[in-house]
Amino acid sequence: MSRSKERSISVALATATCGLLGSSIPAVVDAQEEPNWDINTSLLYYGEDEDRVQEFSLKAIIRRLYTDDRVFTFGLTIDGLTGASPSGAIPLDSPQTITNASGNSVYTVPAGELPLDEEFRDTRVAITANWQQPVGESSQVNIGASASKEYDYLHFGLSGRFSKDFNKRNTTVSAGFAVASDENDPEGGAPIPLSSLLDIGDLSNHLGTDDKDIVDVVLGVSQVISRNLVVQANYSFSNESGYLNNPFKILSVVDATTGDTISRVAGPGGGPSHEFLFENRPNDRSKQSLYTQAKYYMDGNVLDASYRYMTDDWEIDSHTIDLRYRWPVGNDKYLEPHLRFYTQTEAEFYRLSIIDGAPLPVYASSDYRLGDFDAMTAGLKFGWKTSDNNDMSVRVELYQQSGSIPGGQIIGNQAARNNYPDLNAIIAQFSYRFKR
User: Fold this and answer.
1) Measured between alpha carbons, how far is 27 from 313 in angstroms, rounded to an integer?
2) Closest to 29 in 3D by CA, of 132, 128, 145, 129
3) Whole-angstrom Cα distance, residue 394 to residue 383?
4) Lowest-confidence pick of 111-125, 152-166, 242-256, 339-353
5) Are 17 and 336 in contact (CB under 8 A)?
6) pLDDT of residue 34
7) CA of 329: how far to CAs of 36, 302, 428, in Å?
8) Domain total in the chain
9) Those residues with Cβ within 8 angstroms of residue 165's Cβ, 6 or more apart along the chain or in another chain
10) CATH number at residue 199
11) What is d(CA 248, CA 356) in angstroms, rounded to the nearest whole number?
């Protein structure tokens, strides 16, 4: 099928920076003389410092390319996570004992340290399937399905996307949707929101499974500006409803003057040494985001820049700037530096602790991911062609995150403690892509 020169340039720009799986602008698939296979695999390691979360992830995306731009895509991801995860409790000047979320054991946190649940571990298996084909001379349709299973979490989803070319294929508009139904089945049952953490074996404040539904809508447009520049813009709306709590997160109940967690006496079988409550989040969340991206081709080099703004009805606003520069080295190698900046405000119900004796808030969470923080990712990717013309790459990046607690939430002795420690992590990925 013939294409204009501008269309060819846009394809080159789109494919030139797609070394990472899941790139924002997908590569356009030209009609093939014969059906073939395009297989993209990667192995990723993510490791946080202080023996926190460690992840190994194996991913494969298999594309079956047919004539007339018809494509079937199958994806498989296997994730293994382990390490220690922040529980949401605050550090103290004395040791504290905490019952794990399943209620079957306790762990002790040394004085002055951030409480981390060291039993955090999980395995996730996820699959996706998509079918893409032309509709008429200038349109395409894509339908897909997804499913994933974790130890205590089950996901099913469906998606669809329609795109149409205009202006001699230099302009493309698209509309897509996705729906999902997720089931949360934590060991011991989902805890009653804002109920107390109890002794070992006492699950009287735990219920059964809880579900949530997700609906996403995306509207987009891409435009070839010149022979060297292509841009795109997307608007997306997302709504989650149902059980949105994290059943593993708790809050410390503290003295109104000292800010120290209230002590309690554990039962004969063991239990928490202090008062803690399970978190509670609203059962509905709507998010809107605007995403823009530009790719500029410069004599073999490609600059890829994107910006994303997100806002939601939990009062979280975030900004993301992502920069990549693909720099050829010889005829069959390239370097790709990467910088990413992210910042967000805290959710309206984010709080460090709960004051003992005060009326309970309707919603409260001390999950650091809902707090006010900044993050930066910096790294380098090196890619090359193998002797049989396949693609290989290695990527290494450093991630740094630092956050802060609103001043009005700091009480008494809390001011002398590090309530939001910095987070540092390393990311390493090996990718191999081949065609058959």
Assistant:
1) 34
2) 132
3) 6
4) 111-125
5) yes
6) 59
7) 29, 13, 21
8) 1
9) 138, 139, 171, 172
10) 2.40.160.40
11) 21
